Amino acid sequence: MFVGAAFIRGWRQWKKYTPLLMCLCLAALASPFLPVIGIYKYGARNWVGLAGFSVQPSEFMKPVLILCLASGFSNRPRFAKCVPTIAFAALCCGILLAEKDLGAVLLYFLTTVLMYYAATSNAFITLSGLGMGAAAAVIAYNALPYVQDRVAIWQNPWIDPQDSGFQLIQSLIAIGSGGLFGMGLGMGMPRDIPLYHSDFIFASITEEFGLIFAVCLLVVYVMIIMRGLIVAFNARTSFHSLTAFGLVIMLGLQTMLIVGGNTKLLPLSGVTLPLVCYGGSSLVSTFFSMGLLLGLSSMNAEDEARDIEQLEIREVA
């Protein structure tokens, strides 16, 4: 987090180094394809094994993607100047789709579309992008069996209650068992849910602490997002404003996807609940993103203090 705050405060020539960051992001996302270090885990090839540790490049590259998008979309550019940045984001999504990391594909795509709209206010291009994304989703559904399985389980997990639908069924049972106030810390049977500590942490929390506690947890995320939007509104440059906006939008989308997947409102996507569920890659990436927000907030405070000081000098003069 402190590294993120120092990075955004000291990074002044962001336009100059954006192409380098793009190349770094693409290389990192494609690294799981390397036969020596690539790891196939939980139905997706999106892990890398290094020095006895397994890391997830798509998690570490989330703030890098946002910095690249903010650089390319800053200063309200025309669509032609946004094409290289959009092509970069599309290539990232293509790599993640080839790795079967559906949750990361959704996060990267929706973040790109929303940041573009926030930067340009071009509703036509934004809706066109959403339409192309919907068409790509239909093509992926027809071409990739694992996408069809995810959708089928989402529609009716009881078609295969002992295998592919087992996770979602146990998640719904856990949420229902918790009721309003939960069964108590250490009570219940959240461990009956496969991956209860990562993909289904929200269901486990709801079973032990209840629906009221779960709603309060979501309120905390809403407060973080609102504070991040205030930082975006108060930023003095479009690059800093878009960076803050992208960080909180990705946080909100990630929370929405995992909560929706646990409650059967959305298909399962395999993303993590930020700052809560197991996953070192996600935790480090989220803290770095929070550091970026803190750095931007401190810069806004310094700019505001400088403006007040100059105003007082003018009044005295």
Word description of this protein:
This protein has a 3-stranded antiparallel β-sheet with strand order 1-2-3, with no helix packed on it. The model has no long low-confidence stretch (mean pLDDT 88). The protein has helices at 2-10, 14-30, 57-73, 79-98, 102-120, 123-143, 145-155, 166-178, 201-234, 238-262, 280-316; strands spanning 38-41, 44-50, 53-55. It starts with a helix and ends with a helix. The chain is globular and about 75 Å long. The protein has one domain (2-316). The protein has 317 residues and is mainly alpha-helical.
How are the SSEs placed, and which strands pair?
Elements: H1 2-10, H2 14-30, E1 38-41, E2 44-50, E3 53-55, H3 57-73, H4 79-98, H5 102-120, H6 123-143, H7 145-155, H8 166-178, H9 201-234, H10 238-262, H11 280-316
Antiparallel strand pairs: 1-2, 2-3
DSSP, total strands: 3
Catalogue the unreliable spans.
Answer: none
Rg over CA atoms: 21 Å
Integer count of domains? 1
N-to-C span = 42 Å
Mean pLDDT level = 88
Percentage beta strand: under 5%
What string, H for helix and E for strand, traces the elements in order?
HHEEEHHHHHHHHH
Question: Major sheet: size, sense and barrel closure?
Answer: 3 strands, antiparallel
Short description:
By secondary structure, the chain is mainly alpha-helical.
Provide the descriptors you would attach to this structure in a database record.
317 residues; mainly alpha; three-stranded antiparallel β-sheet
